[in-house]
Write a structure and sequence with these properties.
The chain has about 400 residues and is of the alpha/beta class. The protein has 2 domains: about 170 residues, Flavin prenyltransferase-like (Rossmann fold); about 200 residues, Rossmann fold (3-Layer(aba) Sandwich), CATH 3.40.50. Helix content is about 35%, strand content about 25%. The protein is built from 13 helices and 21 strands. The protein has an 8-stranded mixed beta sheet with strand order 12-11-8-13-16-17-19-20, sandwiched between helices. Strands 2-1-3-4-5 form a 5-stranded parallel beta sheet, with helices on both faces. A hairpin with a 4-residue loop joins β19 and β20. α3 packs across α5. The two termini are about 35 Å apart.
Length: about 400
Amino acid sequence: MSLLTDKKILLGITGSIAAYKVADWVRALRREGCRITVVMTEAACRFISPLTMAALSGNPVHTGMFAAEAPETIPHINLAREHDLLVIAPASAQTIARLAHGLADNLLATIALASSGPVLVCPAMNSVMFQHPATQANLATIRSYGYGVLEPDCGEMACGEEGPGRLTDWENARQAILTAFAPQNLAGEHVLITAGPTREPFDPARFLSNPSTGKMGYALAATAGQQGATVTLISGPTALAVPPGVRCIQVTSAAEMQAAVMACLDAATIVVKAAAVSDYRPAETQPHKIKKGQAALSLPLIANPDILKELGERRRKSPNFPLLVGFAAESRDHLKEGARKLKEKNLDLIVINDIGGTETGFGADTNRVTLLDRNGTQEDVPLLSKEETAHRIWDTVARLMADNR
């Protein structure tokens, strides 16, 4: 199940060459279980066919102010009432001007006026038009109405110019849509998250590491942003894209991760150590690749710094220390080991998971965790996507933050 399952989204398409891009948005939303209804302006119908959008959305497309069939439904009122979110994408300069000045001269603008729910506007236009003072003033006006505005990307336009104005990518739009539905439990918080593995080289070609992909930590970063937090992500090597709106610091070794965490600590109000940090590193790193037949039969190791333990020790000395969350990735005695780690490292919350299961191990897209807090409260979270699991973790963090106040 997706976080967007059964959400009702009204998608308003306006006259922009970028209209073709939102066809893929509709397909992506339907894959996640959304119910999509499309409203198109007259100009939008010149760029993409209502028949195409009807086929992709699975629902009739609305194009006129007055319904030819069932006029008694009063489309501009009922469409506004029946949906959880209005997304206008692409939003042309003309439509943004309509919204700013409260015009009601087409169906989409009238729906926006009649809507009491959240509205997300995704501008797309020539860069000169976007940067024009009139457009910028209109964007400022609709922001003052409480509309969300998803900034366009920079790049080459269909007209050949380059600059801001391209319709943003789907991942940015998805993050904004999820934010519209997410509780803002972390508004005003600065969350510091570590994710992924670390690598400890023993020559220029080889290193010690682990199978962590960083998926859980990146899901925590994305969902913290959805819940209103400022997010700093310190990541070991992964193949994952940085979530929209997240500041990411890339590191490789445990020592580099330790230095980055301590440098960012003062600004944080919540610290989540989700990274799989290597416990040991080679005692000596060879300057050149070790050739076959030359390597010793043993590889001497020394301990890496225990970043979570260091944070826990700092917490003992500081009454205003950030709320501290650790992870216990275990293959046996899960609860026993998690409880030990919670106490020994002086944590507020420990997230315990089984790395031996095919649905919960390294690289899986799902997780099943147990949350154990400093007061002894235990919650067994069922098998969920890592994104949904992250939201459940933030629910517990929000409760602990409230207890601290």
